[in-house]
Amino acid sequence: VAPHLAHRGRLNHLSSPRLILPPPPRLSRLCTAGMASEDEAELSLLECRVCFERYGPGGQRRPRNLPCGHVLCQGCVWALGGPESRRLECPFCRRACSSSETSDCLPLLQLLEVLGPECSSVSLALGRSAGRAAGPAAAGLGLRLTLGGWGSLVNPTGVAACQRSGRLAVAHDGKKRIHVLSPSGSCLQRFGERGSAGNDIKYPLDVTITSDGHVVVTDGGDHSVKAFDFEGRGVLAVREGFSLPWGLDATPESEVILTDSEAGALYRLTADFKKGQLKKCQMIRSHLISPRGVAVSQTSGAVVVIEHLKAQGLNNSSTRVKIFSADMDLIGQMDNFGLSLVFPSKIYATAVTFDKEGHIIVTDVCSQAIICLGKPEEFPTFNPLISNGLSYPVGLTYMANNSLIVLDSGDHSIKIYSST
Predict the structure, then answer these.
(1) Which enzyme class, named as a word (predicted)?
(2) Could you read off the pLDDT of 187-207 as tens digits, one per residue?
(3) I need a surface site. Which of 3, 51, 259, 266 has the fewest CB within 10 A?
(4) Is residue 233 packed enough to be buried (19+ CB in 10 Å), middle (13-18) or exposed (0-12)?
(5) Which residues contact 16 (CB under 8 A, 6 or more apart)?
C-alpha cells in the first residue's frame, strides 16, 4: 500500500476483502441546503474517497473511472491492483476489473482545468451556497423531466435530439456507451460496446443525430468518428486524418460539422450513411485553439465554436466563443476578458447550441448556468435562462418542440426544460 494511504490513518488495508467503504456522495447532494460547509463540498468533489488526497491533472492524483462508475485516483488504482496491476476490486461495490479497463474521468479533469484565479475553489466554481434553492430559476423555463442519474448514466459527455422522432441519444462512460431514449425518457436502445472491435466505442466525447436518423459519435479513444443507425448497427467509421475529434453537430442536410481539438481545425463531413459511404471530409477552418463544442444554426447555417485557451500560469485557462457565417467567414468572437466587461462574473463555456430563433445558448460551469448570448448579429447580449439546479452542465440541445435539453455530468442526468 502506498505510504500516503497509511500515514493519514484513513485506510489501513486496501486489499482487505472485508473493507466496505461508503459510496461517494453524489455531486447533486452538494447543492442541497443540508451541506455543513464549503469545505465539505470541496472534500467530496475533488478528493479521492479512498486516500482522501486531492485530485490533480496528472500522475498518481489523476482521477480514473472504474467500469462500475466509481472514481479513484491513479495511485489508488495502482495500489488496489497490486504489483502486477492485473486485477482490482472496487472498494465501494466490490466489482472486479483490470487496470486496463479504467479511464480518465473527464468531468473532474475539466473541473480542475477551470479552477482559476476567479474560480479558485469548488464552491465558487460551482456557485454553491448552503441556502440556495434547488429548483430552476429561468426566464420562462421550468424543469419538466429529469432522466438518468448515477448508475443509469456514468459521467455523460454528450447529448443530441432527433428533430423528427424526438428521440434522445446520450454518450457516457458505461459498458454500452450510447443510450437512445424516447421523448418520455424510457430507454429504447443501448449500443456501442466498450472495446477494441471495429464498431466498439472506446471513449465517446460527443454525439449528434442526423436528419436521416443516424447517430454519429466522436471517439477520443481511437481518434475516429463513428456512425450508427438507431438499432445500434455500425454503418460508417472514419479513422483517418483526425488528431482528436471532439464536438460535432448535424446540418439539416445530414452533413456533420466537427471540431478537432488537437489539430485546431473545423471539418465538414459528408456521407451517405444509409450506404455507409464517406463522400467527403473537408477542413473548413484552421488555426483554432483547442476547439471543442460546436453548433450549427438550422435556419441560417451559422456555426459557433467554443475554443479552450490556456494562458501562462497554473489554472489560467479560459474559453472563447467564435461565430462563423454559413460561408465560414468570422462574424464575431468574444473571450473571457471581453465577456467580463459585459457580464457580472467569469464565464467558462463547455457546450453551445442554437435555439429555434437563432439565439446562441451556452453552458457556464463556473455558475452552473445556461446563458443566452443573443443572435450572431447582436452578439454578445446577456440573458440567463437557467441559474439554479445544475451541477456541471456539459451538453446542450433543443428538441423539436423547443424544449431545452441540458446534460448535467455533475449528477449524471439529463434535464428537460420547457416554457412555463
Answers:
(1) transferase
(2) 999 999 988 787 899 999 999
(3) 3
(4) exposed
(5) none
Residues in a beta bridge with 250: 256
Q: Kindly tell me the burial class for residue 120, based on how many C-beta atoms sit within 10 Å of its own C-beta (0-12, 13-18, 19 or more).
A: exposed
Q: In degrees rounded to 5, what are phi and psi of residue 384?
A: -65, 125
Q: With CA atoms as reference, report the closest residue to 250 among 286, 217, 287.
A: 217
User: Secondary structure of 33-72 in the HEC alphabet?
Assistant: CCCCCHHHHHHHHHECCCCCCECCCCHHHCEEECCCCCEE
Q: Give the Cβ contact number of residue 37 at 10 Å.
A: 10
H or E stretch at 107: helix 106-114
Cell 464498431 -> residue:
199
Average pLDDT in the chain:
81
What's the residue count for the chain? 420
In whole angstroms, what is the distance from residue 114 CA to residue 118 CA?
Answer: 9
CA distance 204 to 157: 7
Residue 201 forms beta bridges with which residues? none
Assigned C-alpha cell, 354: 442554437
Burial of 368 (0-12, 13-18, 19+ CB in 10 A): buried
Q: Are 306 and 362 contacting, i.e. CB atoms less than 8 angstroms apart?
A: yes
Q: How far apart are CA 92 and CA 294, in angstroms?
A: 37
Instruction: With beta carbons less than 8 A apart as the criterion, state whether 237 and 222 touch.
Output: no
Q: What is the pLDDT of residues 341-393, one digit of tens each?
A: 666 667 889 999 999 999 999 999 888 899 999 998 887 788 889 988 999 99
CA 391, distance to chain mean position in Å, is 12
Specify the pLDDT at position 101: 83
Question: Would you put residue 196 in left (φ > 0), alpha (ψ -120 to 50) or beta?
Answer: alpha
Q: Which three cell numbers stand for residue 83?
A: 504489483
Q: Point out the least confidently predicted range of 7-21, 23-37, 73-87, 173-187.
A: 7-21
The grid coordinates listed for 171 are 454518450
Judged by phi (left if over 0) then psi (alpha if -120 to 50, else beta), residue 177 lies in alpha
Domains of the chain: residue spans and CATH? 43-114 (3.30.40.10), 141-419 (2.120.10.30)
CA dihedral 334, 259, 274, 215 (to 10 degrees): -80
